[in-house]
Specification:
single chain; three-stranded antiparallel β-sheet; alpha+beta; 5 helices
């Protein structure tokens, strides 16, 4: 079973046909081609940052003493994009005004689309309340950073 996030454009009603369904999963393509994967998904800022970090890692990898550290930087960048790439895409869409309308657990994308459009009334005039994710900033409960770690507003 996979988790799918359904995002609707600004001002659209729930069940809009322009909704984007994004699967939250590990991406093998993003592991091997992180910058191209981010560009394909229109995450321009994240792609530029990944390119800069990988360029730095490649420059450090040429040094005889720090070569292994440079390879580690490149590998860490690839792994971060492969694990968190869909979250970067969702964050970019929410910055542009899109809202998370539903979180669906399904076997594949076709099943997730079927579940989403079957549970949404076709003639709904106004948008539904936005879905509150566990890492949402709207949570009344706040935690301080633990063990010297940086706080991430209760997110991952």
């Amino acid at each position: 079973m996979a988790t799918f996030l359904v995002l609707i454009p600004p001002g659209a009603a729930s069940g809009d046909e322009k909704a984007r369904i994004i699967r939250d999963r590990f991406s093998w393509i993003a592991l091997f081609l992180p910058v191209l994967w981010l560009l394909w998904h229109r995450a321009w800022l994240a792609a530029a940052l990944a390119f800069a970090v990988q360029s730095l890692g490649s420059a450090v990898a040429d040094h005889p003493l720090f070569g292994l550290a440079g390879l580690g930087i490149c590998l860490a960048t690839n792994l971060l994009v492969a694990l968190e790439g869909p979250s970067m895409v969702v964050a970019g869409l929410t910055r542009r005004g899109w809202t998370v309308d539903a979180v669906i657990t399904a076997d594949d994308r076709a099943t997730a689309e079927e579940i989403y459009y079957m549970q949404t009334p076709a003639g709904e005039a106004e948008p539904r309340e936005s879905v509150l994710l566990p890492a949402s900033e709207t949570s009344p409960r706040r935690h301080a950073p633990m063990l010297g770690l940086v706080g991430f507003k209760e997110g991952r």
